[in-house]
Amino acid sequence: MSRARVAVLISGRGSNMMSLLEAAAAPDYPAEIVRVISNRPDAHGLVRAEAAGIATLAIDHKAYADRESFDAALDAALEEAQVDIVCLAGFMRLLTPGFTQKWRGRMINIHPALLPSFKGLHTHERALAEGVKIHGCTVHFVTPEMDVGPIIIQAAVPVLEGDTPDTLGARVLAQEHVIYPAALRLVTEGRARIVENRVAIDEFELAPPALVVPPAI
Ligand code: GRF
């Protein structure tokens, strides 16, 4: 089996990156992580990736005059590593339209909310402030507009009485670690096809029960 070559782009602690590395350690997983790249040289995720034996690279965005030159360096590093698919995992840089266009259909992102609700930052605080009863996370293809591209997979979690952004965020993060490897598998196996602005999933069988919060009993 030839495995897709994947780069994971991070800016911080890298827990989603670790979930991808752990999934890719299984012999039947269709992707291998060939590079972990950070725009922040001090990202803790780089240390974790190195400890896992993955080739890492820091491309410090502060060393570049503008977004175009940073994205050109990033693109060159991806090409040099013969990357097929890019996973953004807590990568806190806006990418230029040219870069996102080039990697269209081959670059995915994880967002800690049920898109299209709560795009951007501080999603757990905002979900609590809005009083939603169900929150969650989304993996989607990356397009030029932030947090907008075709949705591949989502997980929903209940919002509980007394939740804080930290407790809710931890519940969401646990599901991020489930759906990101699942999404990468779907994309790598060609089972997540972009049809206009949505994703069609082939061979989709499972029908989970609805999540109702509070339980309708
Ligand atoms: C995650 O919540 C992810 O959804 C968001 O940034 C956070 C990164 O966390 N895009 P980690 O670095 O993967 O632990």
Q: Would you give an account of this structure?
A:
The protein is an alpha/beta fold. It has two domains: 1-103, Rossmann fold (3-Layer(aba) Sandwich); 110-202, Rossmann fold, CATH 3.40.50. Helices cover 32% and strands 24% of the residues. The chain has six helices and nine strands. The chain has helices at residues 15-24, 44-51, 67-80, 97-102, 123-130, 165-188, and strands at 4-10, 31-38, 56-58, 85-88, 107-111, 134-141, 151-158, 192-195, 198-201. The protein has a seven-stranded mixed β-sheet, with helices on one face. Strand 1 (4-10), helix 1 and strand 2 (31-38) form a beta-alpha-beta unit. Helix 1 (15-24) packs parallel to helix 6 (165-188). The chain is globular and about 55 Å long. The mean pLDDT is 96. The protein binds 5-O-phosphono-beta-D-ribofuranosylamine.
Helix/strand layout:
Elements: E1 4-10, H1 15-24, E2 31-38, H2 44-51, E3 56-58, H3 67-80, E4 85-88, H4 97-102, E5 107-111, H5 123-130, E6 134-141, E7 151-158, H6 165-188, E8 192-195, E9 198-201
Parallel strand pairs: 1-2, 1-4, 2-3, 4-5
Antiparallel strand pairs: 5-6, 6-7, 8-9
The protein binds 5-O-phosphono-beta-D-ribofuranosylamine.
5-O-phosphono-beta-D-ribofuranosylamine (GRF) is lined by residues 10, 12-17, 45, 89-90, 110-112, 173, 176.
